Amino acid sequence: MDVKQGAGAPRAGKARAGALLSPNWVTARLDDLVNWSRANSLWPASFFPACCAIEFMATAASRYDLARFGMERLAYSPRQADALICAGRVPFKLAPVLRRIWDQMPQPKWCISLGACASTGGIFDTYAMTQGIDTIIPVDVYIPGCPPRPEAVLYGIMLLQKKIKGESFLDPALRVEHLPDRAGMFLPPAATDQVSRPFGSSVHQSRSA
Amino acid sequence: MSGAAPNPSVASLRAQFGTAVGRSLVSCGDTIVYVARERSHDVLRWLQESPAERYDYLTDLTAVEYRDRERPIEVVYQLWSLGRRSFLRVKVELAKSRRLEVQSVSDLWRAADWLEREVYDMFGVHFAGHPDLRRILMWETYAEGHPLRKDFPLRGRFSRAEQTRQAMAADPESNYSLEELSIAQAYRSLPADMVERLERHGRRKVE
Amino acid sequence: MGERRSVELGLATPGLDAAGRPARVPLGLAGDAVAEPELRSDHMLVNIGPQHPATHGVLRLVVELDGEVVVRVIPHIGYLHSGFEKLGEYRHYNQIIPLTDRTDYLAAPSNNVCLAMAVEKLMGIQITPRCTVLRVIACELSRIMSHLVWAGTTAIDIGAFTVFLWMWQEREKVYNLLEDWSGARLTTALTRVGGMMADVPDGWTDRTRAWLGMFPKVLDEVDVMLTRNNIWLGRTQDIGVISAADAVDYSLSGPMLRASGVPYDVRKDRPYLGYETYDFEVPVGEHGDVYDRYLVRMEEMRQSVRILEQAIDRLPDGPVNVADPHVILPPKHRTMSEMEAMIYHFKQVMDGVPAPEGEAYLGIENPKGELGYYFVSDGTAKPARWRIRPPSFINLAALPKMAEGHLLSDLIAINASVDIVMGEIDR
Prior knowledge:
heterotrimer, C: alpha+beta, Cytochrome-c3 Hydrogenase, chain B, three-stranded antiparallel beta sheet
């Protein structure tokens, strides 16, 4: 961001302090201004199912202090929110609720998937659990951990801020609503099955005895 | 552990109910007694009300299915007497060849209301006389089955895509019970078939 | 209307009434209320949750309202149902311990202890004296942790935001201690069948003692803020009353039950971990309202401090784990150098530790109530049935009984006073 002086003013190196202290024009890239204000005043739409919510609350409390990031004002009404922070596991019964909250948020909006369960289903590869909220809504930042430490949560938020600062507010492709199809599916069935495939120790858990 | 003396309530039960009381054993220090399905409500009421027993606190109500497919499903009542500080586990066996049904004890202990709903949801056991037997943990139109049964796979019967589709398609009626819809202010604007169904079930609010 | 009357305010600290409770000073206009015009109104159906700040998780309350008065409230749960009990059937007993952290995630070490004890009851294992005392320390720290969250979230629901920040600051200090011990702040997986995951590090007891020295002062500060605060009294006294008989009928447990006057505490009535040898009291309320639950939980935190100080004083030396190599993993340096130790390690990790056929129920006094684990074993290394007796689930069933007839804002206060955690309710 440059501060340019009006035409005819003395050059910076030789000017007296008084002349420099009254710039009439401030120029910046509009994208920078818009992204700076968006990134530093993200109102989280908190979606707090489970344990990761406790770590998010610890991040918001006085020791780690989300207020430094402009995020202390939690927007429980999604209509007033910028970033949906899904902190916790999302079972199938909760999935339509999450989708509805996401749909109710106006653009521009971003999503942070906080924790292993929100990202991939975590340790719950069971009949009741979605294997990651990205099967239901689009996710911008994934924060792994079970639960992630507040430092990790802050790092994830800073990643989102970095992502926002790299955006262009005129780009229509960024502000497209990714709506589910008529059957309510956000991802095609094959893609849902693919990302939900068991991995790691889930592969071996099929035998009960 | 099994050598420990059994809870004297077992002997009293046998004296009171005779053949309705089945086998009893002690496992890890806890006394377990099996009672016949048809008399389970009488037995449990007697255990609650009889002055010498007074099992006034229903600690837990659940069900067990064994990996051995031949064994029946057991409905388990964990009873605690606050005054006598005594613990008793009562079990009712339900043969899988017949309809899984046992008398509800929600009239004896109010806590049994939700506990029995959960057993119904997870095992498919019906509780006769329960005021409102519907699913409590899964959504009410959940179609995959009863999850804690041994023939129900860990990841469910359907594919993940199908489970997602069914979850997202859960319609508004399945999110509100009929009882709740009957009191909605928008009652008059509900679709005609819903109004008719509500009136048929007798849940319509009297104005 | 006549001339405006002044509002009478009690500015001094209110005195005590005949029952010894702080007396409410009524705030209100002296004189006649303005008559409201007659309005015809229907009852409203309002949905609260499952995404809502004051439902303490994904709880959905469907409320029938007559104006602001709650005529009926119907709780809907299951929005966090994860299949814990099913998953337990596919896990070795030690592998279930990390699962227990995630049921009641506000008091995770307590859940770990309950599980280890239930499996040890099933397998007939006697733990060492040092392990016994360490588990008491873990349980009481959990009690404090859980009540801190309860106090903070209840206060913020009723409107006192400061208390929330103070409580979370104290919780950070407990997190530091737990992190030193187990490596994790929240989901600790502290116990193992037959012992603990690790012994406390050097200096840990001194740090805990130092924290215990100043923690009661924080409780005193909260007392000053809330206990005789007129607004707090007005929002919590005679709200959400449940009688002792009803509380027993609903199988309530923990502070919910004791606030109604029923003195059932598993630590006193079915002692475990040597609780009968500790000198502590169990606070029991009288009126069964939100205020009594608040008093009971605040006093329980002070009693937990008392127990912790005694436990740290008496912590005996010696091994933390039982000496049975079939149950406890051998130390790593031996596993890597001795064939026998390596075989024990291999068998335990690959096959798990089988439990004899049988069943066991073990209940402990969790911060929220009686937490019970019921295991049924068919002789294999994985349980045939793992049942969690969830105190919050059973306590929540009494919510309609307590809340009907109160105002909508009272419903929020009552819901907060039940102290629920959805991970445990829905499992």
